[in-house]
Design goal:
Number of domains: 1
Strand content: over 45%
Helix content: under 10%
Largest sheet: 4 strands, antiparallel
Radius of gyration: 15 Å
Number of strands: 11
Strand order of the largest sheet: 1-2-3-4
Order of helices and strands: EEEEEEEEEEE
């Protein structure tokens, strides 16, 4: 099942879409992405999506923004260190090549839960990410960026 799709412009009339997908193990989601041009033609191989992260357990709720160069930066809630999810990121370039390993890059893996990431581009090729953070205790629900 594919769920939680998000979309951003590629800067050339097309779009980059990301989603979580349990095609490898039912109920354990990984993050995928695909680029389409202005005519709706798929741009990256494989056509059913480029793997953004396939770490153990599950990665869910991806968020995406343009990197300003035809690619994107994607962040998500990652449960590889269950029961305490963390926030991870990955960049994919304009031709569909991820810029880190398929494990992504840890943005925050502090004690307790980090969940619900949101992302916006910083207009210089990077991104600003904010998330709900419980490092001060289960009921703290602070925001970090």
């Amino acid at each position: 099942m594919q769920a939680h799709a998000q979309i951003c412009s590629d800067g050339s009339g097309g779009a980059i879409i990301t989603w979580d997908d349990d095609r490898n193990i039912v109920g354990k989601y990984d993050i995928y992405a695909q680029k389409i041009n202005a005519n709706g033609v798929i741009q990256w191989t494989p056509s059913n999506g480029v793997i953004i992260c396939n770490a153990t357990d599950e990665q869910i709720y991806p968020q995406i923004c343009s990197n300003g160069f035809g690619g994107a930066i994607i962040t998500w809630e990652d449960h590889r260190n269950a029961p305490d999810p963390g926030i991870y990121i990955q960049e994919i370039n304009s031709i569909g090549v991820i810029q880190a390993t398929t494990l992504g890059i840890a943005l925050c893996t502090a004690e307790n839960r980090q969940i619900n990431p949101q992302i916006c581009c910083d207009e210089t090729g990077g991104a600003i990410i904010v998330w709900q953070d419980e490092r001060e205790g289960e009921d703290s629900d602070d925001l970090y960026a």
